[in-house]
Amino acid sequence: MRKKTFAAAALLAAATLTLSACGSGDDAKSPVTVVGEDTSNKPATILDTPFEKPDLVLTDTQGKKYDLRAETKGRPTLIYFGYTHCPDVCPLTMNNLAVAKKSLSKADQAKLRVVFVTTDPARDTPSELGKWLKGIDPAFVGLTGDFATIQAGARTLGISIEPTHKDKKTGKVVSVHGTQVIAFSPKTDGGYVLYDEDATVDDYTKDLPKLIKGENP
Amino acid sequence: MKPGKCLALTGIAITGALTLAGCGSSGSGGSSGSAGSSRAELSVGASYMPRPVSADMAAGFLTITNRGGTKDELTSVTSDSAGDITMHRTDGGAMEEVSSFEVPAHGQLVFKSGGNHLMFEKLKRRPDQGDTITLKLKFAESGPLTVEMPVKSATYNPSTGH
Fold first, then answer.
1. Which residues constitute the signal peptide according to the record (chain B) (predicted)?
2. 0.80 exceeded by pTM
3. CATH code of domain A44-213
């Protein structure tokens, strides 16, 4: 059923394209663009009502129990939900944070906690996660565990993830990542700033010194 | 089911009508269509690969521009550097493999971070910044194109160039 609707949309799109292709020459200067324009240039959103830190007790890359609230209490903390078999956004997000972190003083670097929670725990075992994070920043925390627990934790932050599943058409494994990094204040332990996936190294470099102090960027 | 079917029929009807009109005018216009040659004319730009975390997986981005008046379709991407290259579109946080992508007439097919991407698996080794990955793009109509894709830093941002 869904497939059919999609086919119809594709046909309609084809029809529109045919119009611009075969229409009069005056239309030729307005090329068809596949990707929409990005108008937002502010990747950080400060929340009026901060998120409570999720009560997640998971397993770290050493295979040890990691209680998120206890371990990151009073620390500036950035949390992201993703998976290691992700070619584009997940490594880019984590690498952006890793590069921006290097511009902090050593003391501030030691205060910061960056926590990567896998959305694909079946494939992201503690050792797989550890191997992947080592290629980005060995100080980053990687957490894995029961999917339902991770999903429930993500949901409290407004992040909706699905279990890894096989695509019915292609038979390929599909996983889902979150699209935001959430910054938690060392003063309140509340998640008060959201970064979307357009946030760059420069954005994080500019904001991290403020986030370390729990100030608004 | 009903609305879908209805929509499809409308689509077909419109396509038919336009094709008729388009081809009619180009036939009578003779050589007047200076910019709009009928064939797809493809070129590739803005290609790069952010340095991946490992040899297991990498992403690649590029833009295919079609200056011709006919659409084409990107049907496969191959490289000696990777065991497998697939094409994906991203929808929210989920990515979906696609077997082909349309390159619209007088338009572009854009692969960019956060959107459509090429996914490289089983690379021979982890590429370093400064390396070049040679790709072969195949199309439904046009001949194949070879692309020399530079490997940039892991955090490369094409809009700032660093």
1. 1-21
2. no
3. 3.40.30.10
Name the residue among B4, B95, B105 with its Cβ closest to that of A1.
B4
Quote the tokens at residue A100.
């921006």
- Please give the average pLDDT of every successive group of 10 residues along chain B, which has 162 residues: 40 39 34 58 97 95 97 97 92 80 97 93 96 97 97 93 83
Query: What's the CATH architecture for B42-152?
Result: Sandwich (2.60)
pLDDT tens digits for range B43-82: 999 999 999 999 999 999 999 999 999 999 999 999 999 9
Question: Rg for chain B (alpha carbons), in Å?
Answer: 19
Which of B8, B52, B106 faces A28 most closely, judged by CB atoms?
Answer: B106
**B99: chain A residues, CB-CB within 8 Å:** 170
Burial zone of B91 (CB within 10 Å; 0-12 exposed, 13-18 middle, 19+ buried) = exposed
Measured in angstroms, the CA of B139 and the nearest CA of chain A are apart by 17
Helix, strand, coil distribution of chain A in percent, nearest 5: 35, 20, 40
**Does the beta-carbon distance from B15 to A18 stay under 8 Å?**
yes
Q: Name beta bridge partners: B82.
A: B123
Task: Please report which confidence band the pLDDT of residue A168 belongs to, taking 50, 70 and 90 as the band edges.
Answer: confident
Q: Is A86 known as a binding-site position?
A: yes
